Amino acid sequence: MHKSSSIKMKDGRWINNERLEFLGDAILDAIVADIVFKEFEYKKEGFLTNMRSKIVQRETLNKLALELGIDKLIKTSARSTTPNTHMYGNALEALIGAIYLDQGYRMAKQFVYERLIQQFLNIDTVAESEGNFKSRLIEWSQKEKIAVSFDLVDSFVDENNTPIFKTVVRILHETVGEGTGYSKKESQQKAAQMAMARLKNDSEFIHYIMNKHKSHVESLMESKNVEVEES
User: Which of 21, 25, 178, 186 is catalytic?
Assistant: First the structure.
């Protein structure tokens, strides 16, 4: 059941999936890491990390949940009108957590691999996609040696008590992208996507950032030279 379920247990507690989602999220990360490690035997850590992120991201999990028909099984409050498009993906995580508790890691991995990845995902197509904007932005940052930060600037709940998060991406302290989502990861991805689009399409902005970075490096070098002379 989704966390907005209207059903209560005898002791007055609401029946919901939040604890199972927490466990399922961690188990799914481990399972997907296990799978991509073995599927891509000669790939480096960066590629494997990117692959895992693409598979476990909210959008992918939501689509997989719909393919399985989980949307037809969720019981939620009739009062809830929240457009939480990730409700089904969250329920899928809860299901994986439940399988792990009941049958163990081996069966949970078998379910993820056989019922999800083999049936509904082409792993080679996933490898070629560019869905993980946060990873791409971090790779750009490391390549150019330019500081990038992901800052959570706001979090609140909507009228149905659903958490909403807002993240901004800053490059050299300049805000270049922002995003909101039902999880911190989702808000980071949306903010990174906006930032990547600007880096790709706004030549004037890129020129500005590169000049600012150059000036910052020169300023640091001058400071070091002054310190050396004074010593």
Answer: 25
- Quote the CA–CA distance of 108 and 97 in Å, as a whole number: 8
Q: How far apart are CA 17 and CA 71, in angstroms?
A: 14
What tokens does 187 get? 């808000």
Told to judge if 93 belongs to the known catalytic residues of this protein, a careful annotator would answer yes
In the chain, the largest separation of any two C-alpha atoms, in whole Å, equals 76
Q: How far apart are CA 225 and CA 128, in angstroms?
A: 46
Strands (E) across 44-173 are located at 148-157, 163-171
Residue 66 buriedness (CB in 10 A; 0-12 / 13-18 / 19+): middle
Walk me through the domains of the chain, giving residue ranges and CATH numbers. 18-129 (1.10.1520.10), 134-230 (3.30.160.20)
**pLDDT score of 12:** 59
- Per-residue pLDDT tens digits for 51-109: 888 888 888 888 899 998 887 877 655 444 444 557 888 889 999 999 999 999 999 99
Determine which one of 93, 159, 178, 229 is catalytic. 93
Beta bridge partners of 157: 163
Place of tokens 């310190």: 227
- Token readout for 133 is 């904007």
pTM for this model (two decimals)? 0.57
The crossing angle, in degrees rounded to 10, of helices 184-201 and 203-230 is: 100
Q: What is the pLDDT of residue 2?
A: 45
